[in-house]
What does this fold into?
Amino acid sequence: MFFAVVAGNQSCDRNSLSDMKDFDVVILNGRVIDPETNLDAINNIGIKDGSVQLITVKNINGRTSIDARGFVVAPGFIDIHQHGQDRENQIYKVMDGVTTALELEMGTADVDNWYREREGGALINYGVSVGHVPLRMKIMGDPGGFAPVSDAVYKPASDQEVEQLKKGIELGLSRGALGVGFGLMYTPAASRWEILEMFRVAGKSKGPCYVHMRYGGLKEPNSCIAALEEVISASAITGAPLHVVHVTSLGFGYTQRILQMIKEARSRSIDVTVECYPYTATQTTIESAVYDEGWQEKFGIDYGDLQWADTGERLTEESFARYRKTGGMVIAHSISEEIVKSTIADSIVIIASDGTLAGGKGHPRGAGTFARVLGKYVREEKLISLSEGLKKITLMPAKRLEDIAPMMKNKGRICIGADADITIFDPDEIIDQATYAEPAKYSFGIKYVLVNGIIVVKGGQLQDGICPGTAVRGAIK
Ligand SMILES: [Zn+2]
It folds into this structure.
């Protein structure tokens, strides 16, 4: 790691800082693509002590060498919206080329404990925000799981509870949280003032606010347009950077208008970023406020568009009512392919998965998001170029995090001093294999993945029993 300091505040360059020949790993004859410098050429890479130390056309040697002829050598993919943070999920992530997966939308109520639980035991790099939703659940004693189900959903916070929430967010940020997570649709009783108070705390330390907006869909007065106005205003008022999560699953037919509004806000120097996942269906818990009365009209769908994640069955009025009582994950086929495509093609949009798998069940985005972008949308449909596709899953997410976590300046790039988080794939083969019926299928065409210089996927095979992932964390004050 001893070159990390050098890379910290400098842009990538291709000159070696070292004449050493004894590399730990060398990657030979691959097509090296760095989205920051637009490097796209056959090169050899020398890695030592977890970082990239040489990029050269000359012959180099190392203790381990990887033959990358015919393959693309890219920065490891960065997923800034990944809920599943256990071993099962990390395996699917890394088999999809991901070297860093962050839980930012929901976050945690206890930042120290969250990091402590993963230290030394992670396959890939991990990180978390402090979450308004879990804090609200804790303070109000809501018994929900992923999403709240009682007071945290339906009860306005008292002045005293707002103070407790502010303290919780302040504490989380002081313990190195990567910003503040919000699921406003899951906490409809949280007033606009309560949210503004949370943004004020975030703004003081320039922590980005990652927001699942209050409303989705088209129906006024509670439309996605109104929902975006709320959080852009909060960002403008408080100075907290804003990141809008999974825009297509809230914007639906209005996604282009949402993107237009975000660009207009950016042109006024408001720091707003946005992400989408490359699928036409959403997934969340059926017992959450998302499926409170009026959901059909709000999302423009009906019972038959809902699919029970556990069994794959399509729902009816009867089974909807039954499952809403027991709880669990439901998939909604509610986004048109046209909207998915125009959103992916937009240059400001980051790609992130919103993924989580549990016992092999879930939405295919948990296992296939990244290979799907590069296989379906880059190669097959030629919607965007390979370098544009890579930029959306490496450099752009790294840049979103750099202010709160300067260590991200060493990720999302391949340059001298960068962390050796590297994904090597076959551009002619790469494709997702996870489907709604079989979500727990590894992506195809990911050949090698290195996390902090350690090979975790080798010849397409997961290497067992190693935990090279480290924490992505902001400053601890
Ligand atoms: Zn969400």
Observations:
- The CA atoms of residues 143 and 270 lie 37 Å apart.
- The longest strand covers residues 23-34.
- The longest helix spans residues 159-174.
- The pocket of zinc ion is lined by residues 105, 183, 212, 245-246 (CB under 6 Å).
